[in-house]
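S1.2 Input.
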Amino acid sequence: MFALVKVIVSAVLISIITEVAKIYPKFGGIIAALPLVSLLSLFWLYVQGEEKQHLSKFIFGVLWGFPATAFLLLVTALCLRSSFSFILSVALGIGGWGIFLLIQNIILKNI
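S1.3 Output.
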């Protein structure tokens, strides 16, 4: 039952953001950039009784993934601006995300 509540609340938030983005693309993007998914996930983990150490590790994981996610969004936006198809733009963004994470892991392991 709890899983169903999580799905419904999460779906409603995503639906609201996409509806706002239809009318106000820039404002919708700003809302989507808010850490809604991270905070919602953190909230669900907390409600499920996860320990503070686990929550802290989750937050550091989000921070670890942030630079690569920003790169994904940059690549996708630049590809769309250059008239690439949507699917190709997203695929290149995801590929860039993966490569960025690999490079980030290699560089930061050596520090």
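S1.4 Remarks. The mean pLDDT is 89.
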